[in-house]
Structure formats: structure tokens, C-alpha cells
């Protein structure tokens, strides 16, 4: 019985200490994920703001993020590892590459989603382009931007698990090592830990999302939510914002 | 690199193997898409119809969607008692993702069917079930199709992760190439995955256009 094997594996104290122990693996996994998402944010947010504010390059952006969404993560990490001749760095770069599109798309969609009348009002008040971007468009796009960050984090948590195949540490290790020796208790333990980590990280980011969304936006959330739903139905082809919930930015899955 | 690729593809046996992988990949990704729609439409109806079930249902779907595929692939056997290396796990896991992805948009789409349309259908004598199948569901097709496009791309990309548990369609080319330190199979695998995603996406767009003739007559999407 696999479930009983899992309980046995998880309650064995020797699996909770040392460099291969659960706490160390969780720490590795977290480190990769946070680093990758931070790096992706440094690239994705400014780029998304540029495209969303100026409207330049949006076709290219949608096309590129669709292609990246279809890219098989296992193939990507394998090819990066082989081309670079091994090591952890190319694999981490792969994580960053996969983490960028959801953040980029979220930022862009957030800026696009800002009510035109709000932008017009800001212009009418004499705001410059820069003031408009930083004080109106960016705060108003926080819900979708943070949605993008959450998708990005999920993508990276999953891909970091897959990347254990090419030698990355983290929680993919016990899972894949267990498969090699047919220790299914260990396999399922690794899987459950990855799943828990993903769900917890998403909860933390959902909390952060509440904190960074301006109070005014939260106050009108009820009406805005209804309006957005309606619009989403009217424009079903607008890929970036059609997938509902926190996957609103069409984030990738892995 | 290109000469390597040529050499790799020149072998008829290799080409036949790639063909088999491609066919596996197609059914492993598209069966769950169909199953997902079949499960998600009734669930979406429940969430639309019963306010109390809505929050719980959508919440569960959100959590399910956060579970990484590699984890879900090996947790499924614990839940349904299948073999840990069985292809059924991949199909069930991807069906779950597709369902989780589609329930919310379907619910929103059903919510957005205008009350006057429902009133008109009722006045014309449509009973609840016929009205749902003949009026409300067709009006939701644009949203459903948009969700299916995201789901198909995501499934096609995820199937290859299954190669780690022995069922991966084109993903087998990645594990093969990696274990032999040989790039051509990986390049072929990535290329075919991207092409497959593109072709399925175009087919879904064509299907949506065929099923929603009214959107073209008016030149705008119907609410």
C-alpha cells in the first residue's frame, strides 16, 4: 500500500536531517524559486510596463508568451544542461526564462485593464507620462500583476521539481531518486511535499497580493469584478485575461 | 549540429519511433481535454445554479490547479489505486487540470447570459434542460473555446513531464537525449511539441468559428 509506505517514509527521523533531509530540500527548493521569480520580476515588470504604457510590441509579447507557454519544461532544462555542459546555473537560467512570461503578461494585462476614463482623468489633471505610469497605471494594475507573479511562482515550483532530472537539488530529488529504486513511499512523499509547498507559497503570495492592491481598488472590487467578468465574456479571444481566477494572466503550468 | 540532426532523422527506425511518440502525445494530451470539458460543463452549471456550492467548488479548483504536474502524476495512483507507472495517471491528472482551468470561465459565461435571452427562450417553450443545451451552453462556446485553447497548449506541454514516470509521448525523446548526452532527439521533441500545440490551437479556433456562426453575422462577439 503506497499510502502506508509514504507515512513510514515521512515519519522516519533519518529523512529529516542532513543535506538530503526534508528541511534541507525544502530550503533548496525555496531558494531556487524565490531567486528565479525575483530575477524574472526584474525583467518582466519593467518590460510589461513599457509595453503596456506605450502599446509598442504587444503583438510580439503575446506571441512570445504563447510560444513559451507551449515549451515543454523537461525538454528546455535538458537542452540547456547539455548545451552548457552541466552545472546548476544553466538550469536556474531556464527557470528564470519560464518565470518571465506570466509576470510580463500580468503586468501588461494589468496596464491594459486600467479603466480608460481613469487614464483620461489623470491626463486631464495634467499628469505627465511618467506620473501617469507610476501613480495611476501601476497601482491600478496590481491585481493582475500579482496574479502574474503567482502564476510565475507556481510554474517555477513545478519546473524546479522536474529539473531534479538534470541534477538540480530540491524536492524533486527524493521523488526521482525514489522512482529509480522503486521506493514508492519516498516518491509519493516527495510529491506531497512539492504539492504542499506550491499551495503554501500561493497562499503567501495571495496574502501579499491583498497588501499591495491599493485600498481604493479593494473598495470597488465588488463592482469592478462584475464589470471585468462581463467584459471577459464579450472578448473571449483576448488570451491574456481569459482564464479565470488566479490563472487570469494565462500563466503556464508545469 | 544540423548534420547530427540529419543523421539522427535519416534512420527509418528512429522516424517510426518518433511517429509512435507523436501519436501517444496526441492522445495523452487531447483525451484529457475532451474529458475535462465533459466534467467541467456540469460543474460549471452547478456553480452557476447553486450559489452555496460556488465558493467551495471554485476554491477547490484553484487549489487543485496549484499542484505541480510531476507531483500530481504520482499522487493519482494513491488516490485511485492505479499502478504508479501507468498511462492512466497522466490522463487523469491532465483531465483534472483541464477541469480546474475550465470551471470558472464556464461559470462566468453562464452567469453572463442576459436575463432577457433566457426569458425569451422560456417564453418560446424551452424547458430548463433544453434551454441549457440549446441556448445557454452555445452562448458560452466562445469562452469555453478560449479556455480550451489555454488547456490544450498546457496539456501538450505537460505530457512530456510524464516521461519521468514512463509515459510521456514526445517527452521520451528528452529523457533519451539526456541519458545519451545527445541533442538531436531533444531538438526534434521540442519542435514537434511546439508544432503540435500550434496545429491544435488553429483547429480549436476553426472549431469555434464553425460552432458560433452568429458572431460573424453581427461582426461582434455575442454576450
TrEMBL record, chain B:
Alphabetical keyword list: Membrane, Transmembrane, Transmembrane helix, Transport
Listed InterPro entries: ABC_transp_perm/SBD, MetI-like, MetI-like_sf
A GO-annotated cellular component: plasma membrane
PROSITE patterns named in the record: ABC_TM1
Superkingdom to which the source organism belongs: Bacteria
Signal sequence residues: none
One Pfam short name: BPD_transp_1
GO biological process: glycine betaine transport; transmembrane transport
Record membrane topology: Multi-pass membrane protein
Parts of the chain that traverse the membrane: 26-45, 57-78, 84-103, 156-174, 186-207
ABC transmembrane type-1 domain location: 22-204
Family listed: Belongs to the binding-protein-dependent transport system permease family.
Protein name: ABC transporter permease subunit
Organism: Solihabitans fulvus
Amino acid at each position: 500500500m503506497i499510502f502506508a509506505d509514504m507515512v513510514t517514509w515521512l515519519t522516519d527521523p533519518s529523512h529529516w536531517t542532513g543535506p538530503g533531509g526534508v528541511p534541507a530540500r525544502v530550503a533548496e527548493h525555496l531558494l531556487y524559486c524565490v531567486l528565479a521569480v525575483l530575477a524574472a520580476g526584474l525583467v518582466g515588470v519593467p518590460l510589461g510596463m513599457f509595453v503596456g504604457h506605450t502599446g509598442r510590441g504587444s503583438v510580439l509579447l503575446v506571441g512570445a508568451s504563447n510560444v513559451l507557454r507551449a515549451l515543454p519544461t523537461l525538454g528546455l532544462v535538458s537542452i540547456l544542461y547539455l548545451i552548457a555542459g552541466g552545472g546548476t546555473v544553466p538550469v536556474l537560467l531556464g527557470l528564470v526564462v519560464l518565470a518571465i512570461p506570466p509576470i510580463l503578461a500580468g503586468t501588461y494585462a494589468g496596464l491594459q485593464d486600467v479603466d480608460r476614463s481613469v487614464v483620461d482623468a489623470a491626463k486631464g489633471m495634467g499628469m505627465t507620462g511618467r506620473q501617469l505610469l507610476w501613480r495611476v497605471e501601476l497601482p491600478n494594475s496590481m491585481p493582475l500583476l500579482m496574479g502574474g507573479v503567482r502564476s510565475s511562482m507556481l510554474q517555477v515550483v513545478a519546473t524546479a521539481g522536474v529539473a531534479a532530472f538534470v541534477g538540480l537539488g530540491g524536492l524533486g530529488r527524493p521523488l526521482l531518486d525514489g522512482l529509480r529504486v522503486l521506493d514508492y513511499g519516498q516518491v509519493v512523499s516527495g510529491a506531497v511535499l512539492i504539492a504542499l509547498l506550491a499551495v503554501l507559497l500561493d497562499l503567501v503570495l495571495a496574502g501579499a497580493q491583498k497588501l499591495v492592491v491599493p485600498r481604493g481598488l479593494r473598495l470597488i472590487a465588488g463592482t469592478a469584478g462584475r464589470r471585468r467578468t462581463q467584459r471577459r465574456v464579450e472578448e473571449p479571444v483576448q488570451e491574456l485575461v481569459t482564464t479565470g481566477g488566479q490563472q487570469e494572466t494565462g500563466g503556464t503550468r508545469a | 549540429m544540423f548534420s547530427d540532426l540529419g543523421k539522427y532523422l535519416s534512420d527509418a527506425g528512429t522516424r517510426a519511433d518518433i511517429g509512435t511518440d507523436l501519436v501517444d502525445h496526441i492522445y495523452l494530451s487531447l483525451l484529457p481535454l475532451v474529458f475535462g470539458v465533459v466534467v467541467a460543463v456540469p460543474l460549471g452549471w452547478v456553480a452557476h445554479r447553486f450559489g452555496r456550492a460556488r465558493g467551495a467548488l471554485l476554491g477547490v479548483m484553484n487549489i487543485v490547479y496549484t499542484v505541480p504536474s510531476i507531483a500530481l502524476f504520482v499522487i493519482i495512483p494513491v488516490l485511485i489505486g492505479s499502478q504508479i507507472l501507468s498511462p492512466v495517471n497522466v490522463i487523469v491528472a491532465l483531465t483534472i487540470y483541464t477541469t480546474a482551468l475550465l470551471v470558472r470561465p464556464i461559470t462566468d459565461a453562464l452567469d453572463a447570459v442576459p436575463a432577457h435571452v433566457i426569458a425569451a427562450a422560456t417564453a418560446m417553450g424551452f424547458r430548463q434542460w433544453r434551454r441549457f443545451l440549446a441556448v445557454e451552453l452555445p452562448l458560452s462556446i466562445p469562452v469555453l473555446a478560449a479556455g480550451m485553447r489555454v488547456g490544450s497548449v498546457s496539456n501538450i506541454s505537460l505530457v512530456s513531464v510524464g516521461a519521468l514516470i514512463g509515459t510521456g509521448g514526445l517527452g521520451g525523446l528528452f529523457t533519451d537525449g539526456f541519458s545519451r548526452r545527445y541533442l538531436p532527439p531533444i531538438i526534434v521533441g521540442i519542435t514537434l511539441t511546439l508544432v503540435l500545440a500550434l496545429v491544435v490551437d488553429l483547429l480549436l479556433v476553426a472549431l469555434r468559428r464553425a460552432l458560433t456562426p452568429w458572431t460573424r453575422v453581427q461582426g461582434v462577439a455575442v454576450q
